[in-house]
Known about the structure:
The chain is mostly helical and about 400 residues long. About 50% of the residues lie in helices and about 5% in strands. The chain contains 12 helices and 3 strands; from the N terminus they run H-H-H-H-H-H-H-H-H-H-H-H-E-E-E.
Amino acid sequence: MIGRLDRQASLFSFAFFKEAAAIKDPVLEQIDALLEDDYLLALSRQALAARCAHSAEVGREGIAPDRLLRCVALKHIKGWSFRQLRWELRTNLLYRRFTRFYEDPIPDFTNLSRAFALFGREGTEEIHQRIVQLAKAAGFALGARLRTDTTAVESNIHHPTDSSLLADSLRVLTRSLKRIAKGCQGAPFEVVDHARAAKRRVLEICRAAKSLTQNGADQLEESYRKLIGLTRQVARQARAVVSELSKGQRVARPEAFLQVLKEEACLKHYLPLVEKVSAQSQARIFEGETRHPEKILSLFEPHSVVIRKGKRRINPMSLDDWSVSMKWRTGWSATTRWRQATLAISYNGRRRSRPIVLFSIGLRGWPPPTGASGTLPTKRLPSNWESSRWFCPAGDP
């Protein structure tokens, strides 16, 4: 049963109302007046009544329409989860007053989640349209243009490497082919499972990528060549099976018709993506093309894109006419303008250790600036530094 809008206050609620009235929030006060609209309350009541037959008249009393509508607004304004919404309602007098719960117990977050889902897409769209109508009536907006704002959400995918994408392609296509072969009439066609071979190729690629020798690079290309070949072989078989099903050369058994139809749709969906994965892997490994158009990062989230956050890094090997501030380990610092800068990097014998930046900088003037005492520092640099010297490029004095 739907909760009532006119609720009798508790006998001991005087202290609560006195404390809650002293807390003010300008934003929530304006939204509170907006949510008093009868049409919005009717939409909330209609959503609660659609749970099941006769849920508006019989059954245990549930959440009231005004409370549900205000909880929905508060959750989206604050960007909370259902658990956090319940916690804030239990601990905050202001939010209790805004949602009209007052001293009543707060529903569990699971109940809130199920109640929120009752609005659906159509109900949410009607609420937005009503808000626009109210804004136009109040003169806040003309309603002629709609400006939206978006945010980037992290995709729930594994790290997108070419080898893992090829292995996913093999796994998905083989799984659908096996189910189709099991559900079709007549003798089932043979489907070779290349899972073990794909796993071995992926491990070989991981080991070869850590090697910096020419043999490691050759092994990397050879493993990728085998993995791409397996993927294209299974993709050809999948295309042939889809063609046979569309032409009626293969017929599904009556009890497995829906499953075969589902797997056929899966093959039609994944085959173009698998072809793109094979093409971009071929281009990157064997042709050195890293900026392949419409790059696929995941078979299951194909809309995912790479978003570079922060400022774009500047290549330190191609700087020209920048102001640089250098500080030696002796504490002396020098600021100058450089031209044709070259940074030599020492890795202490290991490629992935923390680099030590060394400098050979062409200055506009000579000699270089001196320290506070008027002389250059004379402390010797560590022995693992490859070079540390000033030089004057051609054309400078």
